Amino acid sequence: MAEKAQRKIKQLLDKGSILWWQRGITIFCIIVATLILSFNLLPLQVSLKAGDIAAEDVYYEGTTTTYVSTLLTQAAKNKAADEVGQILKLDNTVLSKVMSDIDENFAAIIQAANDETLNDGARLYVLRESLPGTYSDEMLRYILSYDQTNLKMLQASFNTIVAAAYKGGLSGEDIPAAKEEIAAAIDNLNYGDNCRKFLLYYNDGMEWPPSKIYDAVATANAVEKAMNKVTSVQVTVQSGEKIISKGSNVTAEQVESLEMLGMKKESLRILSYIGLFLIVAICFVLLHMYMRYYQKRDYENRSSLLLMAVVVLLVLLLCKLLSLPDLSDNSEIAKQIGYLLPVPAAAILLSVLLRRGIAIFSTIILSILVGIICGGDLSFAIVAIGGSLAGILSTHNLNQRSQFVSSSFYIMAANIILIASWGFLWSQSSEAILSGMVIGAINGFLSTILVMGTLPYLESVFGVTTVVKLLELSNSNQPLLKRLMIEAPGTYNHSILVGNLAEAAADEVGADPLLVRVASYYHDIGKLKRPYFFIENQSSSDNPHDNLQVSLSALILTSHVKDGIDLLKENKFPKEIIDIVEQHHGTSLISYFYQKALENADDPVSIHKDDFRYTGRKPQTKEAALVLLADVVQAAVQSLIGDERSKIEAKVREVIKNKVDDDQLHECPLTFKDLDIIANAFLMVLSGFNHQRIVYPEDVAKEVGAVIDEDILTDNQQISGDSGQQGNEEPLADAGQVDGQPGSAGD
């Protein structure tokens, strides 16, 4: 019960963490989008601000005016405050504490010298622990042997020197000079060399504390007095005086002059900004709710949410920047810049990287915000939506990057038709319509260039595996697949068959068919390290496992999972494929070698099942579970080639049942209904593999030259993995044994 409660609490905490992350992303988007849109949202009488470059000379045309400059007055006060510096006060207790420490140290010398219970080494040890500084044994023995009366005189002389150094007080900066002063005075004492050296070492080792400390109250009072003495700085501006020169950097003082002279009358129009904030907030809250209720998979994925936010905000920022320049002095033509804003780029990126539903909804939100950028003109929002939908639809069956080029033409066509239609509807000038159509066509090229340029980086940074990436990996010319084809042909053939099975079932249970197929191609890639230890790659009757210990054979079989992971990581494969490779055996038992170990063991109790299980994670996704089931089903049915459908169906369902009974599927989201659908899908594909051939009469076979040498046929069957028993006399007892065949494809 306690463990169940702990799991429940952990689930609630994880859910709460995800919820706060999702809300945080939405709030972040609202804030950033509002800031982007509010920039230059409302026209100002004077738009100059500190740091700007003045485009023209600015003169004051009013009457002579004198005003108090807040900035200059504050600068004068700050200067007066800086000149005050720190005020220190004398702490008379510091010298008393120093003298007390010296008394204690010399008392320790006398006590050590008079303590009869201590031997010579102990006395030296006690002194080193008691005295500051570093001393030789010879010096310490000399001080211990020194006459007590003379020792007190030495102490008194030293106290006098230290007191003289502290006269008037010492600040932290004065301490080094004071130590030098004390050392000079020690050199002038009328004592033996050892006594003077002792005092010098003592002085070096002693950390003399300052007796002058910072007085915060006195300093603050002095600063306040200095600032109060500063009079307000007045500035007088004459009529016709130049305030700002063309090409100069505008200073804060100049901006203050504009405000004080009434030349910079900014109207904040706070209600406009409140309205902007509310529109942006509603848009992103709607997007948040859409993701929550209709795109739960991506809603619960932090990387997907962050990717969507980054794409939307970056494209929104780019749209804002592109809208700032003026194309022409003609206002009707200048406003056509709104047709250049690359909203379709965001649509295509989100469609390829995430999902079409997310792309469509995000495009609508982004188009509304673009309408705000363009001064509330509905035409720009309509064109943005139309071009974006054209881009999304044109990438529906995307299978290579070159298709982005064709999508640009769909965007161009949609933009041109919508711009022309809108111009005709509202009787715009032919010049405005033509310029808008040209800009809309440029938008198509710009959007696809942005997509092709940023897609690889977004894939890499956010770890997204796109359709294009999967299609590239499924190409037989991919280096790892080519190696598998050449170095392990049996495994390659098995992987292709597994891919066909898994892909057919994926369509039926809502998994990603392309991801399943590509992962199937690479699920046994680790066998490249030792291909001939797996039966499907053996071309002779010799099986290397016959000469190995059972435990070593099991280790070789299980290690192909880790070897595959290492190989895929080395080649920078997507995480989704690596996870499936890691999980495609789960913790399945290698039953053949386990049974063999039991038979060979003197004490069967000493044989543990866990030593003969795979060490990977159990399937966490539908895709991983499909690869696991397709892998073991293909290996199990391999030995039934040519048998009737009833036996194949029984074997398929038996294999799936064994995996369920072994708890290999309880961590993935497959239901029992899904498993039945998967079994039926497997049978549909297997029926194509196992269809019967027409038996030709011998004389016809001779006429077509179809006499096949039995040895060649046998070799071919071995290479393709038909027998499922190559190099091993053990029969396939049941579906649970499939995982345990020595080096079998479904190991």
Strand content: under 5%
Number of helices: 31
Backbone structural class:
mainly alpha
Number of strands: 6
According to CATH, what is the topology of the largest domain? Hypothetical protein af1432
Spatial arrangement of strands, main beta sheet: 1-6
Q: What is the overall pLDDT average? A: 79
Regions with little confidence, pLDDT below 50 for 5+ residues: 698-743
Q: How many discrete structural domains?
A: 3
Categorize the overall geometry: flat
Helix content: 55-70%
Structural notes for this entry:
With 747 residues, this protein is mostly helical. The chain folds into three domains: 236 residues, Arp2/3 complex 21 kDa subunit ARPC3 (Orthogonal Bundle); 127 residues, no CATH class; 271 residues, Orthogonal Bundle (Hypothetical protein af1432), CATH 1.10.3210. It contains 31 helices and six strands. The strands form three sheets. The chain has a two-stranded antiparallel ribbon with strand order 1-6. A two-stranded antiparallel ribbon has the order 2-5. A two-stranded antiparallel sheet has the order 3-4. The radius of gyration is 43 Å and the shape is flat.
Describe the protein's topology:
Elements: H1 2-38, E1 58-59, E2 65-68, H2 70-84, E3 88-90, H3 93-114, H4 120-130, H5 137-145, H6 148-166, H7 175-187, H8 193-205, E4 212-214, H9 216-229, E5 234-237, E6 242-244, H10 252-260, H11 270-294, H12 296-299, H13 302-323, H14 331-334, H15 343-353, H16 356-373, H17 378-394, H18 403-425, H19 430-462, H20 467-474, H21 479-487, H22 489-509, H23 513-522, H24 550-570, H25 575-583, H26 591-600, H27 622-638, H28 645-661, H29 672-689, H30 698-703, H31 710-720
Antiparallel strand pairs: 1-6, 2-5, 3-4
Helix pairs in contact: 1-11, 1-13, 2-9, 3-4, 3-6, 5-8, 6-7, 7-8, 11-16, 13-15, 13-16, 15-16, 15-17, 15-19, 16-17, 17-18, 18-19, 20-23, 21-22, 22-23, 22-27, 22-29, 23-25, 23-27, 24-25, 24-26, 25-27, 27-28, 28-29
